[in-house]
Target: SAM-dependent MTase RsmB/NOP-type domain-containing protein
Amino acid sequence: MNTEGHEVRRKIPVPSNYRNAAKYLRQAIQEKKCIKKDLLNDKHFRTGRTIMHRLMVNLPHINAIIKHIDLTTKEPRLNEWMARALICELLYGSGNLVGYSLPVETIRRYETEIRAAFEETKADNPPIEHFKEPRFVRINTSTLNLEGAKRMMQEEGWILVDQLFLNYQSFLDRVRALADHEYMVDFHFNDMLVFPNSAKGYWARAEHLRAKFFLQNKACLVPTYLLNPSKKSVVLDMCAAPGMKATHLVSLMKNKGRLYAVERDAERYSLLCQYAADFGVIKTIHGDCLHVTDEQVPGVQYVLVDPSCSGSGMLNRLSMPEPVDEERLFKLAGLQYKLVSHAMNAYPNVRRIVYSTCSVHAMENEKVVQGVLRHNCHFKLLDARKELGKEWFNVGSSEEYPGIGERCLYARPEIDLTIGMFVAVFERCAEDEVNEFYAEHEKQKQSYDRNHKNDAYHYVRPTDAVDYNEPTEEDAVQDVPMNYNDERRKRNNNPEPNIGKKKSKF
Model:
């Protein structure tokens, strides 16, 4: 097109997949935003999860290549996030770039240098081994037993690996070697079947089996088995949606007794009701579990606390690393502390409490356990590995949390082939028994107060008074004893952070 003798060249747009990849990468890295929900809802970026997974796992090598060829100095006008998205497509995607936009043409000019830099930096950036988790399937024992499940799988063309494993490691090795048409019964739980990763497509389509089986990760069964409610018992699931753990607890109870399943969020409550519909033992409660009283759930003996957490143990977050938001972890830990403490103090008949998260951060795990034990004398921490009764490899940190870490279980994706999961088991103390962490914490407080006895002569305003028996949420995540009156006076000039006060979905 000519206008007054001059040729006007239209700007060629960058293909939408490249633009979206650059946008989401910037949001995840620069803005520290969780992009998972946006990717799921973005109808114009349907392959977004695949593209972003590929981009995130290879980002360290891509950054090394850009630095090696000094691309940002040579091309200062080239958007750095766009450059990463295009290099990823060139090296780890289709191998070719689409279109003739300016960024695409720029990367094409450097293609030879980029490929050479890829080889030269490979030694310092080894390829990431992609974790292909098995497809775990739980038998709905309310309608089908193990033998019936085996017959059904045989009719469907699956071959059972009928082998006795003397130890956990030999079982894991065999799981990794499963052929496409093989499956196994789990080493720890005989209502769990293990299929190869390639079976995910089959189970996604197997609608005729939905009433007989649940698609549930093995790690999610660890908390329910450790709670171990007896038949005809009364159980409270404080953060129950979507309801998979609740339905498994009912199966362990042989569909006898009562299970109260609480959920605050309206949308998640609706999903919980769908799962609970086939189980008459489950009574759903739409409300905040911190406001659920003993009168509403009479006679509760067992409590599962599986609250909102960072979700850092979920496989999609492990494969797409996100920056650690310390402030968010701190607030989550405050909420988690409140929930476990509520379970310990609101229900006088409770015998056992299991606390679990799908997080791999100690702030939400061992540190919360440490906090509730220091401020609640009437519950003690059991050794979860002993309670499980079979070999398990991963526990918490005994160096950072002595006496606590080694009694808590972790499921590790790279070892257990599951999602990441943390589990702690509490049991009510005998009448004359006090847990050792509470006793030690009280000793430290008394010693601290004796060393600062002169503080007793200071005038303390009524508003500064603190009830020693009512620890704050901040205390739950502190390691050192404190003089509460001094600490409150400091806070008048330096207000405390808003820990756990913002409502979260759980």
User: Anything to note?
Assistant: The chain has 21 helices and 15 strands.
